[in-house]
């Protein structure tokens, strides 16, 4: 079942959304839905969690293995 959601957008941003949707041959609703689905995708969340964890340990790796280790 679909739900109706209302959001407020400034006119310039809405115009950009309409232009992007038209360029992609879709609707503003479909474009927003696709972007939100991708953002909420679990694999994406896991990937970025891994990137964040790696970044937290980056200094250690550089000290341990050198800055130009290949």
From TrEMBL:
Specify the Ribbon-helix-helix domain's residue ranges: 6-49
* Regions that span the bilayer: none
Identify the InterPro entries for this entry.
Arc_rbn_hlx_hlx (IPR013321), RHH_dom (IPR027373), Ribbon_hlx_hlx (IPR010985)
* Gene Ontology terms: biological process: regulation of DNA-templated transcription
What is the name of the protein in this document? Ribbon-helix-helix domain-containing protein
**What does UniProt list as this organism's lineage?**
Bacteria, Bacillati, Actinomycetota, Actinomycetes, Kitasatosporales
């Amino acid at each position: 079942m679909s739900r109706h959601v209302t959001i407020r957008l400034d006119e310039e941003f809405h115009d950009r959304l309409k232009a992007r949707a038209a360029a992609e041959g879709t609707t503003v609703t479909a474009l927003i839905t696709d972007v939100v689905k991708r953002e909420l995708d679990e694999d994406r969340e896991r990937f970025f969690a891994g990137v964040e964890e790696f970044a937290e340990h980056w200094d250690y790796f550089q000290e341990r293995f050198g800055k130009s280790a290949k």
